[in-house]
Write a structure and sequence with these properties.
The complex is a heterodimer of chains A (about 450) and B (about 350). Chain A is of the alpha+beta class and about 450 residues long. Helices cover about 50% and strands about 20% of the residues of chain A. Chain A has three domains: about 150 residues; about 100 residues; about 150 residues, Histidine kinase-like ATPase, C-terminal domain (Heat Shock Protein 90), CATH 3.30.565. Chain A has eight helices and 14 strands. Chain A has a five-stranded antiparallel beta sheet. A five-stranded mixed beta sheet of chain A has the order 9-11-12-14-13. In chain A, a hairpin with a 2-residue loop joins β11 and β12. Chain B has about 350 residues and is of the alpha/beta class. In chain B, the strands form two sheets. In chain B, strands 1, 2, 3, 4, 5, 6, 7 and 14 form an eight-stranded mixed beta sheet that branches. In chain B, strands 8, 9, 10, 11, 12, 13 and 15 form a seven-stranded mixed beta sheet that branches. In chain B, α5 runs parallel beside α8 and α8 packs across α12. Chain B contains twelve helices and 15 strands. The chains are: A alpha+beta (about 450), B alpha/beta (about 350). The interface between A and B is medium-sized, with 25 and 19 residues.
Chain lengths: ~450, ~350
C-alpha cells in the first residue's frame, strides 16, 4: 500500500512519542513536587517538636543561689520519644560555658534575624541530626546571663517517612505516567484516524471512479481533500478529453479508410502483375487492420463512456448471443466458419445490452479471426452458482499460457497472434464491460481439444 | 621524639586496661559448651541462680557456644561499658535508663531481629534495646513484724503505719541506696515522677533510720533473718522466689501505683560475637514473648498490653525520656534531695 510513497516519519508515532515524553516529564515533576513537599512537612514537624522540647528545657532554667541551674522536664525528652525512635541529644550552655548534656554537639551559629530558634542539620556520633538551639536571658546579681539550650534528634524517622512517601510517590508518578501514556496512544490513534479513513475510501475505489470525496473530514484535512478533489476533477476532465479525442480521431479515420479500401480493391482487379497484386493485397490487409483498430478504439471509447452511465434492463443472455451471432454470420460464412449457440434457458441478468453485445462481438470477431478455415465457433450459456456464464469457444491456437494474465490490458496482443490483424483492445473491452456489470472475465484454453475459451461471468439479477 | 614515645604510651595504656578492671564483679560463671566453639561474654545484673535456665536453654539450641556470665550491679555495668569500654557481647540490665543511655549515645550495635515481630513495639527501643521481662517494684515485708497491724495497701497507708509505729520499725526499714544501684535510682526517679508521696515516704523512712542496700537479694535476706521488717521497691520477681520457701515473707503490690520495670538486653558496640549475641537476644525474645519458654523462663509471665488492665501498674516506657534523670545536673539534684530526705542523722 505504501509502495511508491516517499515516507518520512509518522504523525502517529511522533504524536505518541511527544505525548509519552510530556507524560514522563509531568510524572517526574509530580514525583519531585510530592517529595519536596513531603520533605518540607517532615522537616517542619520535626522542627516543631524539637522547638517545643528546647523551649520547655529553657523554661526550666532558673537561678538558684547565684548559679544557673536547669531542671530538664521529663516531658522535654519523652515527647521526642513519643513520635519517633530517634536518638536524642541536648546541651545546655550558659554564657558560652558548657553546663550539662552532650558537650560536643555542633554549635549553631547565631542567626542574624530575630528568630529565637535556630535550626541546623549536622552530624553527631556518626549520624545525621537535626538540631534546634534556643537562647534566653536571665538576670543574675552580677548581670545578665545567656542560657542556650540545644536539642537534637537523629533523622531516622524522617528518612523512613520520606522513604515511605517516596515509594508511594513513585507509584503515583508511575500510575500517572501509565494512564497518560494509554490516553496519549489513544489520542494519537484517533488523531490520525480521519487520514486513514480517507486513504481507505480512496484506495477502495475502482479505477474509473474519479468522483469528488464527499465524506465529512476534519477542518485540518479540508485543504488536502479540496486539493484531491480538484486534482481528480482535472484528471477526469483530461481523461474524458483524451477519450473524446481518440473517438473523434478513430471516427474520422474510418471513413477515409473505407474509401481507401474500396479503391484498393478496384485497383487489385485491374492490375495483372503478381508483384503489384501482392503489394495491393498487403495494402488491403493493412487498411483492414487500421480500420479494425479504429473500430475497436471507438468501441472502447463507447464502453468507457457507457460504463459510467449504464442503461440497465433485464437481459436474456442466450437471446442476446443468438442475435449477435446472427449479425456476424455473413462474415463467418465468407471464411467458411460455423457460428452456433447452445444453452438452457438461463436466468435473467440485468445489464446494458448494447455494451454486452459490443463486448461479445469483439470476442467473436477475435474467435472468427483466429479459428482455422472450416472450423466452428460455439457460444454456450450456462449458470454456475450465482453467475450466468457466457463462454465463447474457438478452435484456434489458444492463448499462450504465459500471456493469459496480461491479455486484457490495453493494446496487448498474444505472442501467437503476431501474424493476424488486431489491435489488442477486444479483450480489454470485454473485461471492462463485465466489470462494469459486477462480473469478471476468465480466459482459458480448452482441455482435450485445440482452442481457446473466453467466459463472461455476470451476476444473476 | 613523639614518634618514639607513642608505642610506649600505647603499651602503658594497654597494660592498664588489661590489669585493672575497675568495675566490681559480684559473680562469675562459665557455662562450658558441650561442643567446641565460640565464646559468648555476657555482662548482666541478673543473678546466676535465676538466669541460668535461660542460658542452659540457649546452649541446647546452640551446643557449640560456651557462655561466660559476669554478674555486676547495674551501675558497675555502666562503668564497664560506658567508661571502661570493656568487651562484652551481650549486656543485660534492669536499669532501663542506663540501657537507653548506652543505646542513645552510640554504645550499642543494632540487631535486626527476626523474632522482633513477637514482641510489642513498646518492649523495644530502636533495634538496639530489647526487653524480655516485666517486673514490678514491690513492698516486701515480714508477716511477723506486721503482726497485729493492718497490712498497708498504698503508700499513704504505709506512711501512716510507719509513722504510727516508730518503735516497731526503727532501723528495720530498708530500701535501695540509689547512689549505688542503677535500678534503685530508676525506681526512685519514676516514683518521684509519679507522685509526691514518694518524698514523704522517704522522709518517714529517713526518720526511722532506714537501711540502704545495693540489691534486692540482700534486702530479702535481711527480711528472712528478721533484720528488716519492710523493704520498699524490691524486685517482686526475686521476692516471690524466696516467699515460696519462707512463709513469713509477704509481697505487696501497692494499689496507688506499682512501677513495672522491663529488663532488657543490648549488644555493646565492642562485641566480638555480634551474630551469636543477636541469636542470644532472639532466644530471650522468643523465650519471653512466645509460648516457647514456658518451661525455663524464670520471670513472671508477661502482659502484652502496654496499659495493664489494672491501672495501678505503670510500665516504664523505653525511650529518650529516660535520659532526663541521667543528666548530670538533674541526677545530682535528685540524689541531693533524696539524701536530704533519707539520711537524717
Amino acid at each position: 500500500m505504501n509502495s511508491g510513497a516517499n515516507i518520512s516519519g509518522s504523525i502517529r508515532r511522533r504524536l505518541t512519542l511527544q505525548l509519552l515524553g510530556i507524560a514522563a516529564v509531568l510524572a517526574a515533576l509530580l514525583f519531585v513536587m510530592v517529595m519536596t513537599y513531603a520533605k518540607q512537612v517532615a522537616e517542619e514537624s520535626q522542627d516543631n517538636i524539637l522547638s517545643a522540647s528546647a523551649t520547655s528545657i529553657l523554661d526550666s532554667a532558673a537561678i538558684q543561689s547565684g548559679e544557673v541551674t536547669v531542671d530538664i522536664p521529663y516531658s522535654a525528652l519523652s515527647m521526642l520519644g513519643n513520635v519517633s525512635d530517634d536518638r536524642v541529644f541536648y546541651r545546655v550552655v550558659v554564657n558560652g560555658k558548657y553546663l550539662t548534656g552532650y558537650e560536643s554537639l555542633p554549635i549553631a551559629k547565631a542567626s542574624k534575624g530575630q528568630d529565637s530558634h535556630r535550626f541546623i542539620t549536622s552530624h553527631y556520633l556518626g549520624e545525621s541530626i537535626r538540631m534546634v538551639s534556643a537562647t534566653r536571658r536571665l538576670s543574675n546579681a552580677s548581670g545578665p546571663v545567656e542560657v542556650t539550650v540545644s536539642v537534637a534528634q537523629t533523622l531516622k524517622r524522617q528518612r523512613e517517612t520520606l522513604e515511605r512517601i517516596s515509594a508511594n510517590a513513585a507509584y503515583l508518578g508511575f500510575g500517572f505516567f501509565i494512564a497518560a501514556a494509554v490516553l496519549g496512544v489513544l489520542t494519537a490513534q484517533s488523531a490520525v484516524r480521519p487520514v486513514q479513513t480517507l486513504a481507505n475510501s480512496i484506495s477502495k475505489r475502482g479505477p474509473q471512479d474519479l468522483r469528488a470525496v464527499q465524506a465529512p473530514v476534519p477542518g485540518e484535512m479540508a485543504p488536502l481533500v479540496v486539493a484531491l478533489n480538484r486534482f481528480m476533477a482535472r484528471l477526469k476532465k483530461s481523461l474524458t478529453r483524451s477519450e473524446e479525442f481518440i473517438a473523434e480521431a478513430a471516427h474520422r479515420i474510418r471513413t477515409p479508410l473505407a474509401v481507401l479500401r474500396t479503391q484498393a480493391e478496384i485497383a487489385l482487379r485491374r492490375v495483372e502483375r503478381p508483384e503489384n497484386r501482392a503489394a495491393l493485397k498487403e495494402m488491403i490487409r493493412a487498411i483492414d487492420e487500421s480500420s479494425r483498430a479504429a473500430g475497436q478504439l471507438l468501441d472502447h471509447a463507447m464502453v468507457s463512456f457507457r460504463t459510467d452511465h449504464l442503461e440497465v434492463k433485464d437481459i436474456n443472455l442466450l437471446d442476446l448471443a443468438e442475435e449477435t451471432l446472427e449479425r456476424l454470420r455473413p462474415l463467418a460464412e465468407m471464411q467458411d466458419k460455423t457460428l452456433s449457440s447452445h444453452g438452457e434457458e438461463p436466468p435473467q441478468i440485468s445489464g446494458d445490452a448494447i455494451l454486452i453485445q459490443n463486448a461479445l462481438s469483439n470476442i467473436l470477431d477475435n474467435a472468427i479471426k483466429y479459428a482455422p478455415q472450416g472450423e466452428d465457433v460455439q457460444v454456450i450459456v450456462t449458470s454456475e452458482d450465482n453467475w450466468v456464464v457466457l463462454s465463447v469457444y474457438d478452435q484456434g491456437p489458444g492463448f499462450a499460457p504465459e500471456d493469459i494474465d496480461q491479455l486484457t490490458e490495453r493494446f496487448s496482443r498474444g505472442k501467437n497472434a503476431e501474424d493476424t490483424v488486431g489491435s489488442g483492445l477486444g479483450l480489454t473491452i470485454a473485461e471492462e464491460v463485465t466489470q462494469a456489470h459486477g462480473g469478471h472475465l476468465k480466459l482459458s484454453n480448452r482441455t482435450n481439444v485445440r482452442g481457446a475459451c473466453v467466459s463472461f461471468y455476470f451476476p444473476q439479477s | 621524639m613523639r614518634i618514639l614515645l607513642f608505642p610506649s604510651v600505647l603499651i602503658v595504656l594497654l597494660a592498664s586496661l588489661l590489669s585493672a578492671s575497675a568495675y566490681e564483679i559480684e559473680q562469675h560463671k562459665v557455662f562450658p559448651a558441650p561442643q567446641e566453639g565460640a565464646n559468648l561474654r555476657i555482662i548482666s545484673n541478673s543473678d546466676i541462680d535465676i538466669f541460668s535456665p535461660m542460658v542452659v536453654a540457649f546452649q541446647r539450641k546452640y551446643p557449640s557456644v560456651s557462655i561466660d556470665y559476669t554478674v555486676v550491679s547495674s551501675t558497675e555495668l555502666m562503668t564497664a561499658l560506658f567508661d571502661e569500654k570493656q568487651v562484652f557481647d551481650v549486656a543485660i540490665s534492669s536499669a532501663m535508663d542506663l540501657q537507653v543511655k548506652l543505646a542513645n549515645d552510640g554504645f550499642t550495635l543494632p540487631h535486626n531481629s527476626s523474632a522482633a515481630g513477637l514482641m510489642p513495639d513498646w518492649a523495644r527501643w530502636r533495634n538496639h534495646v530489647f526487653a524480655f521481662t516485666q517486673e514490678p517494684a514491690s513492698v516486701v515485708y515480714s508477716k511477723s513484724a506486721f503482726a497485729g497491724l493492718e497490712v498497708p495497701t498504698s503508700r499513704q497507708n504505709l506512711i501512716s503505719t510507719l509513722r504510727n509505729h516508730p518503735e516497731r520499725f526503727l532501723d528495720k526499714v530498708g530500701t535501695y541506696d540509689i547512689r549505688q544501684s542503677g535500678l534503685g535510682f530508676l525506681f526512685a526517679t519514676q516514683d518521684a515522677r509519679t507522685s509526691d508521696t514518694f518524698w514523704r515516704l522517704n522522709e518517714v523512712m529517713g526518720s526511722l533510720n532506714a537501711r540502704l542496700y545495693c540489691c534486692s537479694a540482700d534486702m530479702i535476706s535481711d527480711i528472712t533473718k528478721g533484720d528488716l521488717a519492710v523493704a520498699y521497691n524490691v524486685l517482686g520477681s526475686y521476692a516471690s522466689a524466696r516467699a515460696a520457701s519462707d512463709p513469713d515473707i509477704g509481697i505487696l503490690e501497692l494499689e496507688d501505683f506499682t512501677t513495672l520495670m522491663l529488663r532488657s538486653a543490648i549488644i555493646p558496640a565492642g562485641a566480638e560475637q555480634p551474630e551469636i549475641a543477636g541469636a542470644f537476644i532472639d532466644h530471650l525474645i522468643t523465650a519471653s514473648w512466645s509460648e516457647e519458654g514456658a518451661d525455663y523462663y524464670p520471670y513472671p509471665k508477661l502482659n502484652r498490653n502496654e496499659i495493664a488492665p489494672n491501672l495501678s501498674l505503670r510500665a516504664i516506657r523505653l525511650g529518650p525520656g529516660l535520659l532526663v534523670y541521667q543528666d548530670n545536673l538533674k541526677r545530682q539534684h535528685f540524689l541531693q534531695e533524696w539524701q536530704n530526705a533519707i539520711i537524717q542523722q
